[in-house]
Amino acid sequence: MHHDSGHDCSHLKEALADYLDGDLDTELCRELREHLKDCHPCRVVVDSTRQTIRFYAEERPVRLPPEVMRRLQETLKARIPPARET
Amino acid sequence: MLKTDQDSLIQATLAGDPQAFQALIEPHAPGVYGLALQITRSPVEAEEVLQDAMLTAYAKLNTFRGASSFKTWLYRIATNAALMRLRKAKRAPESLPENWEKPADPRPWTGDPEAWFAREEFRQILNEALDSLPEIYRTTFWLRDVEGLGNQEVAEIMGLSLPAVKSRILRARLHLRDQLAPYFEERLRDAS
User: Fold this and answer.
1) Is residue B165 within 8 Å of residue B110, measured between CB atoms?
2) What is the rounded average pLDDT for all residues in chain B?
3) Using an 8 Å Cβ cutoff, are B148 and A60 in contact?
4) Which domain, by its residues, includes A39?
5) Counting CB atoms within 10 angstroms of each CB, which of B11, B28, B69, B128 has the fewest?
6) Domains in chain B: ranges and CATH
7) What pLDDT is recorded for position B188?
8) Over 60: is that where the pLDDT of A7 sits?
9) Residues of B in contact with A51 (CB under 8 A)
């Protein structure tokens, strides 16, 4: 990361993982929060990364095809012994 | 599924009731399939991994001690089954460049994100971006941000340290952001 004014903020990248996960207690995260107030490009990256995370969490881009589920059920039925008679 | 229900199903399975096992694993089948697909990138192999993982879980259920959640335990089995297939196919592990460079002039993603969720192409865009991620990042990201597992659970499933998990997830998130950015920034330019 590089500040608009030329200030090198690359060390703050270390805090980004915790910051995105909402673990804001570390000193680095506090520094990052302060930095974001002044650095527009960094703020855009953080905001759009948050949107990226949300897109994937909400869209869940893979669905289990019904025929795959059906074949799994058939396989389990064929490979697992039936219930014991009591 | 409530933990008590899950425990009852485990006990019933161990007592010899196969229907209990079906009920136990069915809620996890979509997640296991999605995970296997992230690792193998092949629907055919993902289905085989799904079946292998469920049969292995049945065979080993008596070794499940509840130290981790059933889901974490099952996902570990599925991850191992999928990785074994990759090794057999001798696909070389890929990686991302060591340093991520912040884009020179990032633009905000505006517009109406809700409208995107309704579009058919939206899922395809997300999948294409995922495809561009090397497997080790894709799987970690999937478990954390799509499956919603905690960092510690992801570490257990992947057999990684917590710092390694955090590092991979961050790099995956930033890479995906970079892949999606032109699309959403382009829309911004279209709209303006």
Assistant:
1) no
2) 88
3) no
4) 10-79
5) B11
6) 3-88 (1.10.1740.10), 113-191 (1.10.10.10)
7) 54
8) no
9) 109, 113, 184
